[in-house]
Amino acid sequence: MLIELKRDSHVPLYDQIAGQVRGMISRGTLRIGDRLPANRELARMLGVNRTTVTTAYAELMADGLINSHVGRGTFICALPAAEKSAPANEQLRPAPIQWSALLADDRRDRWLGGMPPSPGKGFTSLAYSLPASDVFPLDEFRRAVDRVIRKERQVLLESGSTGGYEPLQEYIAAQMALTGARVGPEQILITNGCQQSISLIRQVLAGPGDEVVVENPTYPGALSVFCGYDSRHIGVPVGPHGLDLDVLEGVLSQRRPKLIYTIPSFQNPTGVTMDMAARRRLLQLAARHRVPIVEDDIYRELRYEGPSIPSLKALDECGLVIYVSSFSKIGFPGVRVGWIAAEKTLISHLSAAKRRSDLHTSLLAQAAIYEFSRRGLIAKHIKRLNKVHLERRDAMLAALVKHFPEESTWNTPQGGLGVCVALPKAVDANQLLLESIERGVVFSPGDHFYSNLPPSNMARLSFSTSTPAAIEEAVKRLGGILKARLLSLKKQGIARAAQSYRALV
Amino acid sequence: MLIELKRDSHVPLYDQIAGQVRGMISRGTLRIGDRLPANRELARMLGVNRTTVTTAYAELMADGLINSHVGRGTFICALPAAEKSAPANEQLRPAPIQWSALLADDRRDRWLGGMPPSPGKGFTSLAYSLPASDVFPLDEFRRAVDRVIRKERQVLLESGSTGGYEPLQEYIAAQMALTGARVGPEQILITNGCQQSISLIRQVLAGPGDEVVVENPTYPGALSVFCGYDSRHIGVPVGPHGLDLDVLEGVLSQRRPKLIYTIPSFQNPTGVTMDMAARRRLLQLAARHRVPIVEDDIYRELRYEGPSIPSLKALDECGLVIYVSSFSKIGFPGVRVGWIAAEKTLISHLSAAKRRSDLHTSLLAQAAIYEFSRRGLIAKHIKRLNKVHLERRDAMLAALVKHFPEESTWNTPQGGLGVCVALPKAVDANQLLLESIERGVVFSPGDHFYSNLPPSNMARLSFSTSTPAAIEEAVKRLGGILKARLLSLKKQGIARAAQSYRALV
Predict the structure, then answer these.
(1) Which of B322, B325, B358, B370 is the mutation pick for testing A, counting most A CBs within 10 A?
(2) Which of A77, A193, A503, B252 has the smallest number of Cβ neighbours within 10 A?
(3) Which residues numbered 182-221 in A keep a CB inside 8 Å of some CB on B?
(4) CATH code for the structural domain at A13-86
(5) How confident is the model over A104-137, as pLDDT tens digits?
(6) Number of other CB atoms surrounding residue A412 within 10 Å
(7) What class does CATH assign to B124-131+383-501?
(8) Would you call the peptide bond into A454 cis, given omega within 30 degrees of 0 as the criterion?
(9) What number is the ipTM of this complex?
(10) Domain A124-131+381-501, what fold?
């Protein structure tokens, strides 16, 4: 009789013994009439107190699974009810549930296997829009966590309020005020990052069948929210100055979208930023048509060049901007803390949706980030991060010039975490990815970012998570594959031309 | 010119200056033609470097808001676009957005102001189903957090995988196996607690208009999920042995619910537990009708008396049980970590929903709880907690006997965190709550837990978060209010009877 006990488990030992005997009866390892070892014997075998075994047997007896006869021993006397009828006949067992037939939402989820493959060791990843992790101020963060637990004591382990950890709400409101966006702490709802912010906003503002405006291309996580469920989306192209406002104006004059989702600064994946004039026009259009704007400002602090342009929220005069941001791009994607800033009425409804979703964001995570931030460590870290990111951006731009075929073009993002590259027209980015994985490099093909009409030759290359040397090497490999591909296409072209020529003469 | 700078902020100083000047222009504190202080002057006033002010002014100039004339100074030359037309005329500004008109879900949210009031200082709360927080092993927890950050380094701050922190998935699978439920780590999805688990399950299994079976009464958070949105619910009564299976059988023979949500052990709020026979019958019914069961097993470890009864998941033969539990009732409600255990196909769809909701649960929270648990500290804590809870339960039961009027009845829960009391029939629990708040005591009136047909005289009194002395005092006060109420009702009755008698003679 094979029973394995875990001494450090939170399941009491007698419960473990009873549970495992039950399992053996259920699996047929033990059968009706089988004799169990005597209490003392089993206690010795397992190295446990005799009363532990007595308690375990008492439990099994209470379940009606075993019987004890004085002087004869303890026997299995019953099987789990469902097996009674046909203990040895597998065919009569109820068939396993077919889950795929029971799903409410059977449309293919964009993210069910749709993410770029996670690189193993030896891979260089240009795929993720994440901050450099090799410069995380880990020990400072650890000390901040330790300090805040000592200070707050029980509070961090107790149930918290849905709105968030108050000191963090106050800190964020104060930070936003410094950039001209006037919001009070009660207008801040702490979330588990921008993904949750977006998801809550959709729940509250866009019902089944409602339309929303998204930038095309945009953050894939937003597409998973706005293009999933029953929402319908209108993709508005992104030009060199951000969201195409002429197209948007046309859309707003004909349709009644429930919201406009935009990333005005260092847009993902294009890297472009809306200037002041564009921001003002966007606000006017939205105000005229009474359509709320969801401003995803997650890259704001990652600015390497160019002026700081006020957020839509700072310029907003009629309270129609719902501002979302997080700590994930400036240091802590794994800690999962972000926020929504909006008018109080809306915040109260978003809070109800948040409570329904998961009650509140981890107090441990919130307090850790607050403590780290309030001591000025986040400001210091952002400075260091921007220095590192800038070096890496420049390394990537230089490598692109050096190694990529002339037929490719790209922008020079003034902030953010990646470069958006238009590959030579004849090249398919997904095909390139398959080949580059074999050469140890991963990146994000453009179609991940498009709600419709994806170009086949777009790629986003993130520079933030690799060293300049690794970036140079990875871009060199990508360039090599591209050049080989173009050469082979050219040869095919010449061969075809020669064939046509021969057919003519 | 009032500019406030925060030196420890992550917003650069020049950005703070530019942002606040922008705000002043926008609010009309600064007007076109107003002169700004010279660089040097403002730098001295604010105690910052002169280049900081130069940079701030350069930003404002780039925005077209200010102009510099050599020898004359720097002037405000423009207003934010929207204000240009009518700078001083408030009436021409766009009207503020009326959010209430824009909400997708305008049905009253059960939780929008529907929770029992949070007690201030001096209050005794019998309202919340939470573990005793005064025995949290805080320093051990703090050390576990410190240790796991040292061990995992960057990993906890980097982006994680949606399924969860792998060591925690493995730990949970191993723990479940010890009680006879065979699930692999890949069948565990880590969530932010049971509330999120329930919410994700609904998203994946119950579409708009679909029906689900809930226990009546049940956990209010489940009602907020299953009775909100477009789900429709069928409330099945809870009897002395849990869910009324005769009623359920009738429901399943006539309707096609998408799932059955149940708390089989120490049900919230009734405290009752389904015995083995009932569990087997429930599983057979569900298997016959092919309806998944959501087993909320959050109170399992909080057992003070009676046998340990296997979970539905441990008895499940056709994979129809979706098991949800968390660490919130055994120690860490504020840390927000729970899990779902189910068949792999379903887990992959639930993971996609989780990714869409918030990418993944905080790695810091997951790793902290893992480290605390794997060292056996959670097992030790549960032991201590159960001892404390049992004392408090007994204090409450004794106080109820001593202070409550004879017309009230209650059960003796063998586990869980509260006692379910049927008040004298003539008493309304919400009325009692209003009076008891004035006497410094809060509790949960029964109607919070009912999806339909709430009795007016039911109350859940949680014993876990107050000391025995506080419980005795709080129950005494409640009893006093009840007795006074009964006396006044009796007097009214006598007066009415006397009146009737007088009318007759």
Answers:
(1) B358
(2) A503
(3) 182, 191-193, 195-196, 199, 203-208, 210, 221
(4) 1.10.10.10
(5) 754 445 544 444 445 566 788 999 999 998 899 9
(6) 11
(7) alpha beta
(8) no
(9) 0.84
(10) Aspartate Aminotransferase, domain 1 (3.90.1150)
